[in-house]
Amino acid sequence: MNYVTYAVPFFVLAVLLEFVYGWWRHSNTYRLADTLNSLQLGTLSRLRGIVQLGLMGVVFETMTANWTLFDLDPSHIGVWIFAFVAYDLGYYFSHRYGHEWRILWASHVVHHSSEEYNLSTALRQTSTGWLNGIFYIPLYIIGIPVELMITVGSLNLIYQFWVHTQHVGRLGPLEWVFVTPSNHRVHHAKNPLYIDRNYGGVFILWDRTFGTFQDELPDETPRYGITRQLNSWNPLWANVHAWYEGVQQMWQTPKLRDKVKLWFKSPAWDAPGVLPPRADWQAPNYNPAASAVARTMSFVHFWPHVGAVFALLAFRDAFAESQVLSCAAWLCLGFYVQGTLLEGRAYAHWLEWLRIGCAALLLVWLMPGEPLLTASLAYLALSTLLNVVLIKTTLSDDRLRSPG
Fold first, then answer.
1. 167, 173, 178, 180: CA torsion to nearest 10
2. 157, 158, 207: which is closest to 182 by C-alpha?
3. What pLDDT was estimated at residue 379?
4. Could you tell me the pTM of the whole model?
5. How does pLDDT run across 104-153, given as a tens digit for each residue?
6. What's the CA gap between 24 and 265, in Å, rounded?
7. DSSP assignment, residue 214?
8. Cα(335)–Cα(25) distance, rounded to whole angstroms?
9. CB 216 within 8 A of CB 170
10. Which of 96, 281, 286, 348 is 20 to 30 A from 194 via CA?
């Protein structure tokens, strides 16, 4: 069973509680734009199940049907413990090569692109991570059932949520065995001393064993994010920017050998003769000016989009495939528009009109029942009103623009 979906409401509640606690203690670690961007990326990653090809699923099914060495009983506690520990070891190598190979980093970079470090960062997940499953193939060959792999994988991911916080200090002897907030802060830091360290999911023992451990030092405060800054609140661009950069460098690389090598070298490696993007781990955080109205609009629109994503996943069988994909495309457009609002783009209101128009066409096509139709029309009316307010505010009072 995949427990992640059931844990999502508790994740959101924990994010809210952490924000309140930080505000109360005068040590807030949240910024609205960064937090919304993380939540957008996490929600988008749930849509991946609608459009993914399922290649790794086919591979795993073939493995379990024809190549398993042992017939392990998933009801046996020893098999559960073995599966949990073995999965975490597989995760260690998947995570490590996710930093050491550009072809994997291009997906994993999404999780590291936040310049803040809080519980919302844990929800900042990629929508393009299809290749990491290769590191778990040995576990399927051994004979760990697919259902058990899904279960321990979801438990592994849920454990990792709580370590994304700055409000928990060092935890004594636990630091030697488990991944903790302290040693995971190191993993998310872009300080040269901290880069590419502490890959474990649940157990930090793998890092200590394989020489990739780095302790958090009191005189080396972590700076979060990536050295080649994203500089965008666009969740679609966050998912593809590293792929774009890699393809661009591959195109500029004259030697075929280097074109291939590029994808299996560190993302910090640049092919000879290629001018790489600027990297600076001390660069100031991305903080474009956006009006209070634009930021409020982005916040207000985000939550109906979240509800629509989970509703689409739950009731997709009630619609034609073309309708499901069209709804997914509209949701992606909505998240993109929210990003332009957070960035204070002058053309954001035009994109918002496009989003509203597409929503009206979808309603005509889907022909929902009366309760959903009424709610949808009310939301479209609210969207129209907010966009009119945005336009009038932008034209009449530029003083409302403030850091995001």
1. 10
2. 207
3. 92
4. 0.91
5. 999 999 999 999 999 999 999 999 888 888 899 888 888 888 889 889 99
6. 45
7. -
8. 32
9. yes
10. 286
Measured distance CA(116)–CA(224) in Å, rounded: 6
* pLDDT for residue 240 is more than 70: yes
Domain coordinates of the chain in residue numbers?
4-97+109-210, 289-403
Q: Which two tokens stand for residue 73?
A: 């009983």
Token code pair at residue 389: 């307010």
Q: CA 154, CA 202: separation in Å to the nearest integer?
A: 12
Distance (Å, whole) CA 373 – CA 364: 10
- Around Cβ 5, how many Cβ atoms within 10 Å? 13
Check residue 270 and give left, alpha or beta (phi > 0: left; psi -120 to 50: alpha): beta
* Cβ 110 vs Cβ 42: under 8 Å: no
Query: Could you give the angle at which helices 235-252 and 102-112 cross, rounded to 10 degrees?
Result: 150
Q: Is the dihedral of CA 207, 103, 222, 224 positive or negative?
A: negative
Residue 33 token pair: 């734009």
What residues contact 375, with CB distance under 8 A and at least 6 apart? none
- What does the block give as tokens for 14? 């924990």
Which among 60, 120, 133, 51 is positioned nearest to 90, based on CA atoms?
133
